[in-house]
Design brief:
single chain; Rossmann fold; 2 domains; five-stranded parallel beta sheet; four-stranded antiparallel beta sheet; 15 helices; globular; protease; serine-type endopeptidase activity
């Protein structure tokens, strides 16, 4: 192998401030994959709009050439590596989130049906009522369809969601994606793994006329690896050792039960702690609990049968169509449970809640409760994308669905309070930062206090919802200036 070529000097690209405020090194010897961002921005610089600002050409009248950056990262996000361009013939399904014709009407309706004491409390909306509140303006649909047609997208390849809020463009070739979005799609993979590669771009743009009509386009700059809230693993022998727990737990109080068990937490102990030991679920034909698992994760029928035989021996597993998380099945039986395994082999690092939740929105029958033990760093996803997904949670909430998300494992005391630059900063976790889900954190000890490692619900993307104004200001005041700026 010959001598290494001298590393090129960092390049800096400066575009008109009306198009992009960016003047920083884009390509360095340590970040060669940033060529993808440079290529995308160069594509923007060649648009007639930008050329006219630099005196290189006369602007064309079509609004589709007046591109402006919608979202771009300064570099390939942490923990991801660029593998280069995809092979020829690869296509993408593009998902386009549209602005509703009326802002905040769904949020107001959600508060009406969710706030005790209000006349509409408990009168959840139908899917048709929700769809009416979030439908886009006809002008929005006309503009977006015209833009797609201008770039050769046939109407037969475009489908519309039940509420009209999302368009899906099927099988778009990567070169056409790059032209549509001023992008440079590359293959990326979670560094140090053999996980499935994904197609992403580190920046994309839209015609300026569409910015007020389009909330986000996916998949584009969404990079987020899965973080799961996991129980401390126990061996089969430990599970077997816990077999006597139901009888012992039934005859003791919470303090006695928990203090005598340093490692295992059994369903019986949880029932005793929360005083639900004698509760029997009712309305079994109306209630369903769904659990989501990503990355080829699924319950083991063998482990589930062993667990249930110990902690819920009266459960008839032959009547359960799908296997489910062991603790939920043991505690909530006989409420029906359904487990969704999303992703596949090889291991799937990316956790994207949008397709799953959007799949549920048009369903006539939806679960009353959903549990998802996955969180991603809020800073690793575009704000516009987080807002769009949170809006889907709001739609499900208006229909009466309670969605439970883990708060994440990087709380104040977890030792991971740093942003990508090393600055001390609390790391918020999405979707727990969305106001329309229930964020569930960890607890510890007999008298149950919050675990330091557990994340919280504060956000750098979302404003504080009105319903939290009753308690949050007093809490922040009690902290003083201890955590200002982080």
């Amino acid at each position: 192998m010959g001598p290494e070529a001298e590393a090129p000097a960092p390049l800096t690209l400066v575009l008109s401030a009306s198009v992009l405020e960016l003047a920083r090194p884009l390509v360095t010897p340590h970040n060669p994959c940033n060529h993808a961002l440079l290529l995308a921005l160069c594509a923007l610089s060649l648009s007639p709009h930008v050329a006219s600002l630099t005196g290189l050409a006369t602007p064309l009248p079509q609004p589709w050439h007046d591109l402006s950056v919608k979202h771009a990262w300064n570099a390939v996000p942490d923990t991801w590596e660029c593998l280069g361009p995809p092979p020829p013939g690869i296509t993408i399904h593009l998902h386009i989130a549209l602005q509703p014709k009326e802002e905040n009407v769904l949020m107001e309706a959600l508060y009406e049906v969710s706030t005790p004491g209000r006349p509409q409390y408990g009168k959840h909306l139908s899917k048709e009522e929700v769809a009416k509140l979030v439908e886009p303006h006809p002008d929005t649909l006309e503009l977006v369809h015209s833009w797609l047609a201008h770039h050769g997208v046939h109407s037969s390849s475009i489908s519309t969601s039940h509420d009209g809020g999302w368009l899906t463009v099927m099988d778009v070739p990567v070169p056409q994606d790059n032209e549509l979005l001023g992008a440079s799609y590359q293959l990326y993979r979670l560094a140090g793994t053999n996980d499935t590669a994904i197609l992403r771009t580190v920046g994309y743009a839209l015609p300026k006329i569409l910015h007020a009509h389009v909330k986000t386009v996916a998949p584009t700059t969404f990079f987020a690896s899965a973080r799961t809230l996991q129980l401390t693993p126990h061996s089969h022998s430990e599970s077997a050792r816990a077999a006597g727990a139901p009888e012992k737990a039934a005859s003791r109080g919470p303090a006695s039960v928990l203090s005598s068990r340093d490692e295992d937490t059994t369903p019986e102990e949880l029932r005793r702690l929360y005083n639900t030991y004698t509760y029997k679920p009712t309305a079994l034909t109306k209630n369903v609990i769904r659990v989501l698992g990503y990355g080829n994760e699924f319950p083991s029928p063998t482990d589930l049968n062993m667990f249930i035989s110990v902690f819920q021996p009266d459960s008839d597993l032959d009547e359960v169509t799908f296997t489910v998380e062991m603790y939920m099945q043991a505690i909530a039986y006989p409420i029906p449970h359904i487990f969704y395994s999303i992703g596949g082999k090889p291991r799937w690092s990316l956790v994207d809640h949008q397709p799953v939740m959007a799949h549920l929105v048009p369903k006539e029958k939806i679960p009353q409760t959903m549990s998802v033990s996955y969180a991603v760093n809020e800073k690793d996803i575009p704000a516009e994308y987080a807002w769009s997904v949170c809006d889907i949670f709001m739609q499900l909430g208006a229909r009466g669905v309670s969605i439970l998300f883990s708060s994440g494992d990087d709380g104040v005391g977890a030792g991971n309070c740093q942003d990508a630059s090393g600055r001390v900063q609390f790391i918020s976790k999405f979707p727990a930062t969305c106001a329309y889900v229930t964020s569930v954190g960890g607890t510890k000890s007999i008298h149950e206090v919050g675990a330091e490692l557990s994340g919280g619900g504060f956000s750098n993307y979302f404003e504080r919802p009105a319903y939290q104004n009753v308690v949050v200001p007093a809490f922040l005041q009690s902290l003083g200036s201890q955590y200002d700026g982080i």
